[in-house]
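Please fill in the sequence for the structure shown.

STRUCTURE ENCODING:
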């Protein structure tokens, strides 16, 4: 009886802040910042037009985000973006936000694809960073790049701290999660895709994301938003138990607020 009363009280205490946070307009406000998205129009597989950008940024603001760090792909074969292209695109988005009275902070970094070109780029010029020296990187989802760890170590030796984007999506590592422990032991950070936990990429990826969450492996949480449908998935997540998991998880996102 007493334990039931106690459990009931504990449950109410646990849920009170969640109810407050889950109100429309502030659902993801506890994160403060998002650090992975594709909001600059026409330069990757994200926003196609400035209207797409405005729609997505408005959706993020309506969900409570206050800072967005958008991260266009830098992938030589498909999206040969330079820092200059990205910064010019960012300026256009910022101007459009002002013109449309959408009050939110937005800056740009990049999602660098690890390949031979990236190794050259790393030698040539400074990379765009998410926070201090932290650089968002991704790699093939089909096979383990032979030089993957070598490149991660190279980044570290140059003073960068790699944030590995959506580790749960690399299927070839699903039975080798120790690879991610090795990355973290060396100083890399891991970024979870919220869409993975929502089941957007399938059950296996969701299961691996949950496993990494339960092991406290993630450092950042990102929307990886490419289009409006992704915003709808994030909105719907607020009514799931995954939302409770996120609220209680020590993500570092809030330190990115500008
Ligand atoms: Fe991405």
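FILLED IN BY: designer on duty
SEQUENCE:
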């Amino acid at each position: 009886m007493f334990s039931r009363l106690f459990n009931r009280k504990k449950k109410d205490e646990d849920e009170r802040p969640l109810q407050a946070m889950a109100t429309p307009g502030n659902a993801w406000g506890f994160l403060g910042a998002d650090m992975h998205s594709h909001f600059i129009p026409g330069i990757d597989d994200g926003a196609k037009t400035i209207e797409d950008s405005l729609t997505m940024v408005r959706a993020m603001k309506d969900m409570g985000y206050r800072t967005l760090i958008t991260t266009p792909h830098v992938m030589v074969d498909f999206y040969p973006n330079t820092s200059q292209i990205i910064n010019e695109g960012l300026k256009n988005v910022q101007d459009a936000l002002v013109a449309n009275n959408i009050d939110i902070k937005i800056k740009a970094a990049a999602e660098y694809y690890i390949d031979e070109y990236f190794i050259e780029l790393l030698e040539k010029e400074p990379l765009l960073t998410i926070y201090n020296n932290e650089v968002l990187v991704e790699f093939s989802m089909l096979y383990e790049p032979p030089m993957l760890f070598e490149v991660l170590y190279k980044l570290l030796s140059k003073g960068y701290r790699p944030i590995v984007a959506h580790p749960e999506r690399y299927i070839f590592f699903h039975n080798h999660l120790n690879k991610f422990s090795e990355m973290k032991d060396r100083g890399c950070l891991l970024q979870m895709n919220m869409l993975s936990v929502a089941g957007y990429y399938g059950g296996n990826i969701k299961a691996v994301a949950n496993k990494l969450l339960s092991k406290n492996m993630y450092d950042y949480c990102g929307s990886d938003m490419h289009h409006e449908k992704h915003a709808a998935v994030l909105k719907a997540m607020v009514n799931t138990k995954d939302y409770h998991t996120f609220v209680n998880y020590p993500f570092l996102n809030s330190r990115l607020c500008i």
